[in-house]
Design a protein that fits this description.
About 50% of the residues lie in helices and about 20% in strands. It has about 375 residues and is α+β, with helices and mostly antiparallel strands. The strands form 3 sheets. The chain has a 6-stranded mixed beta sheet with strand order 5-6-2-1-8-9, sandwiched between helices. A 4-stranded antiparallel beta sheet has the order 4-3-7-10, with no helix packed on it. A two-stranded antiparallel ribbon has the order 11-12.
Amino acid sequence: MSLGRMIVCVIALFLCAIPAYAHKPSDSYLTLQVKGDRVEGQWDIALRDLDFVLGLDADGNGAITWDEVRHKHADIAAYALSRLDLSSAGKPCPVKVVQHLIDNHTDGTYEVLRFSASCTGSISELKMIYSLFFDVDPQHRGLLNLASSMRSATGVFSPEHATQTLVLAESDKVREFSEYLRTGVWHIWIGFDHILFLISLLLPAVLERQEGDWRPATRFKEALLDVLKIVTAFTLAHSITLTLAALQVISLPSRWVESAIALSVIVAALNNLFPVVRGRRWIAAFLFGLIHGFGFASVLTDLGLPKGVLAVALVGFNLGVEIGQLTIVGLFLPLSYLMRSSWFYRRVAFAGGSALIVLLASIWLIERAFDLRLISA
């Protein structure tokens, strides 16, 4: 198999895997307050995720009511607490739920578990083992916000980092920064709508529009400069709105943001098939990048970080997004430049890929705008 055919097959498999992850990645929000030998906690868990594992929607009408949730309180508590272990000084801290509430986040309705835990003696360090939904959704993340009289701390639980120990007597900004750096990288790598928007803008970078047709670019330098303009504009734009949203200066409904992101992917890919914006695609990258920034900020916004760690989290997360983005560009550009003269690139990867992106993004737009699920995960 030639290099061109192999790359096209990889792209096709990648695009076929995308629909299962069209929606906002699953997150839960764990807030802990440590006082002496006690831990007071609040755990916000999306109803859509609980419905998937516990079947909250008893009548199957697609709408989860408070009465349906109330009848599942015992199951929800048992399920959640079986996936959270707290311990201090090597001894377990038994956890019990004290209240069930409902709250609305930017991406939907959440079950709120308020709980308390008692440890043996004053807590100087807290060990946590978190495994909620990891067996059914490896993309799930648990976002931790912990506060005590001595320090504030944040953490991100994932299948690779399910166990964490927080030392309350010291502040580890380096660890917090690295956690959000990794989260930013991961967020762009699983954010297929962001990736497809970027790829839609990059696909024409190794081609030139001449006499109504796309032809191979003659020099790599010109293609590289075009890519740098696009990436710089996209980075600048989403950094602006990521910061504004994380600082809660501007807040937009999640459904609007996610729908607008899907629309941006459609427009970018359609422009490849029916060119309207040609030499200044960086303008489109900037304008739509403003919307994508709100999507990137959803994790930090819903977490409600204290001011003491917000700057560290914001810088680390934003830098992680850029590293993840540049990794994609670094892999895509050399390969696409090598393939630019082939029939496979111009007809299959460029034209066919753009058409497939339009189709996928159109499905996402309908799902997000009308709160439907056309493709099951």
